[in-house]
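A sample copied in:

***
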Amino acid sequence: MKVAILGAGATGGFLGARLAMTGAEIVLIARGPHLKAMSETGLRLIEPDGETTVRVNATDDLGALRGADAVFVTLKAHSVPAIAERLAANLDVGTAVVSAQNGIPWWYFQRHGGELEGTHLETVDPGGLVARTINPDRVIACIVYPATSVVGPGIVRHVEGEKFSLGELDGAQTPRILALSSLLASAGLKAPVQSRVRQELWVKLMGNAVFNPLSVLTRASLGQMAESPVLSPVVRAAMEEVDAVARRLGVEMPITIDQRIRGAARVGAHKTSMLQDLEAGRPMEIDAIVGSVVELAARLDVPVPHLRTIYASVKVLAASTLS
């Protein structure tokens, strides 16, 4: 099986390094100093139990996607619309597109069957471009759990977590998704095939939509936010709003808010991906992670005052910081 990883930064670099160690045919699509370092000296993966440098096939040419059985799209959500047409143009007939974005992804209401079937969210997919360009039959959902960061060109640090949940949009257990799960498992990763992947997406989003923007506003780590007696009422209230939107869609959270907060506390001093982006001067996934929930809440007439305030505050901060 040939696997391509489009956007081989923190998450994609970790995944690519692990898969490359198995001897699988892997190609990493990246750019800039990170690409140059990977091409010249390999990809260095730092993990809690040691570090390894692996030689990888890395390029900035999307033509390298041709011939892949699966393409993991690990780009930030706001980067996907700009490359959607070039991505589609370089896919073979049977190539699966494995979407590993945070927030409510472009495919959420494709092959959904609910009242919002075919809906697109402007905060995620302006004009519905991605949904029109990428055939939903290609898409495999992927919920990413590892905490990772790029600590230098060609260097990825893995803090904790090894789970990449996979799911067909209609919940089927197809040969392609079982093969992909087996490949990830051979790399020491947990890759369960989920029949209700959207439910799991909301479990992760309940944390991301709250902790990510609050980390930008407070500069606090996950552990600090989860354990702060001052911030905890805000965290809890905002998570209750995310839960209310999910319930309006018929999604029942399999864990409690207390459990979700304790899970964040266990990660400790790790900075959210949004805070990492702010500190590096990169665009943040504000719209996909928070704005999408606020937009969806408005469509469903679900009040989310805390999320609206957090979203507005982070948008103003981003405009002043990254301008």
Observations:
- The chain has twelve helices and eleven strands.
